[in-house]
């Protein structure tokens, strides 16, 4: 027999919620649901929780285990101490039982009302391998937008359901698709392998095709398609960061090209990212070229708008420029540019791009591993925020962390939610254009998680995350420096 200490967040109407502790002896292997049943049978019949099939089929038993929403009947007990809480983002009825009415009440109109226009079925007819939604609502439990505006957002379960049921495209459904951060946490958490994030993107494509793209996103698209960048400025301004710091590229026709991206090129507050990267490269005699005004937005925001044809035009332009220059290796400090080049350009253009694509942290890690860059002692307690496009989307979790801890004196502490369960900064999915107030609220939540670690700085590896998190810190009145990994490494370079 094994033993485990279980702390269950129980609700008591008069006294509020508090943890109740149980010591449970159980036979291996056991699931969380087995423990709950043992507690109920042997120690406390009043403990409230939901379950039915016990086989991961009915979706009734979702709870948060050590902060992570899961199906309790599928989660094995692997620790000697466990914290159990009700599924987040739902009102609690009793103990671990949550009120699912919001989902059910929203589901009915989605299924019953006449469609605004019919949804193209996203699923292949009669495909038995297509994952079925269990309606366990784990995805709603992890969703950062559900945590902020549950009354305005249908949530990932309904978004996936709307598409999955092939029913109707109601205004509420399509508006919700634009609230989605496309951060991918719902896909990571879903026990059935459903991809609400991808369904939301599919809904966006169809809404856009019907000419119903929200106005703020139309304006964003207009800037990109006419000026070829997100801010609508003169595209030649893309090199201001290098002219300011006298950091022009060292080689005229190098094999390697740095694709800077709109945010770092055109927002002066982000110039430190390309400047830091160029300085690091200069210290170890690495050359790279730049496209300058010939660099066009990678097309990522248009892809998120559901405007694939327009994004493809940008992709073709950028690819042609690379081919003309004979570029063999492409490096980016922006994970969204990286993801677009690396994963989406082949899908958009229908062919492999034939260029090695790296995120800057990957190239820097190579150089640090080979002893090409050395850092001075820098006593600094930092925490790291995983950008969704670098972490969850491209599974680069350890490289940025290893870079930070390669600086002597740096102590890296983790936030409560990290790696594939990291909270999005709030700036994903074009939410900054669609609903800046919800973006800021999510950024504030992430800043609070960083503050809880006691870190002196919050480091990330994405210019958009940095902008969003800085806005979150500013709005809270908090003095927490938010920097990119390359800026942290730049700071650790020995004085020349
Ligand atoms: S009890 Fe049915 S899914 Fe867990």
Main features:
alpha/beta, 4 domains, Ubiquitin-like (UB roll), globular, 14 strands, 4-stranded parallel beta sheet, 496 residues, Fumarate Reductase Iron-sulfur Protein, Chain B, domain 2, 21 helices, binds FE2/S2 (inorganic) cluster
Could you characterize what this model shows?
The chain is of the alpha/beta class. It has four domains: 2-97, Beta-grasp domain (Ubiquitin-like (UB roll)); 101-209, Alpha-helical ferredoxin (Fumarate Reductase Iron-sulfur Protein, Chain B, domain 2); 225-365, no CATH class; 374-491, 3-Layer(aba) Sandwich (Rossmann fold). The protein has 21 helices and 14 strands. It has helices at 32-42, 101-112, 138-142, 144-148, 156-164, 171-179, 185-189, 196-209, 215-227, 240-244, 262-266, 272-283, 300-305, 308-325, 335-349, 360-369, 398-405, 431-434, 436-452, 463-476, 485-491, and strands at residues 2-12, 16-26, 62-65, 68-71, 81-85, 92-94, 97-98, 256-258, 329-332, 356-359, 380-384, 410-413, 457-460, 482-484. It has a five-stranded mixed β-sheet with strand order 2-1-5-3-4. A four-stranded parallel β-sheet has the order 12-11-13-14, with helices on both faces. Strands 8-9-10 form a three-stranded parallel β-sheet. Helix 14 (308-325) crosses helix 15 (335-349). 49% of the residues are buried. The model has no long low-confidence stretch (mean pLDDT 92). The structure holds FE2/S2 (inorganic) cluster. FE2/S2 (inorganic) cluster (FES) binds at residues 51-54, 56-61, 71, 73.
